[in-house]
Write a structure and sequence with these properties.
It is a single chain. The chain is mainly α and 99 residues long. It has a domain of 58 residues. The protein has six helices and two strands. A two-stranded antiparallel sheet has the order 1-2. Helix 2 runs antiparallel to helix 3. The protein is elongated, with a radius of gyration of 22 Å.
Length: 99
């Protein structure tokens, strides 16, 4: 009997309580391999540490192929920007400022 490629994944995911299929999505070893470095990065782990833990050969491979940004991370980055008015006031010479 032929083994389905996902059977090996199921053999350890089921006892761990990890759902293989949920809401139209599926999780397999390949998906976990991509998720792991991204989850480490979101947790504040240095990229080089994530590279070593994921056993990836280069930092470029880690960051360009296996590190995925989500919309929440992009939104958080934008929220960190100072307000435009505050930035303009700090950058403008004193003679240009409205009194």
């Amino acid at each position: 009997m032929a083994m389905h490629p996902g059977d090996a994944t199921h053999s350890w995911m089921n006892p761990a309580g990890i759902a293989f299929r949920t809401a139209g999505w599926y999780l397999d070893f390949h998906a976990l391999r991509h998720q792991f470095p991204s989850t480490l990065a979101r947790s504040g782990v240095h990229p080089k540490v994530a590279q070593k833990l994921a056993r990836l050969s280069t930092i470029t491979l880690t960051m360009d192929r296996y590190r995925h940004l989500d919309l929440a991370e992009l939104g958080d980055a934008l929220q960190r920007l100072p307000g435009l008015a505050a930035a303009e006031a700090q950058a403008a010479p004193a003679a240009w400022r409205v009194k």
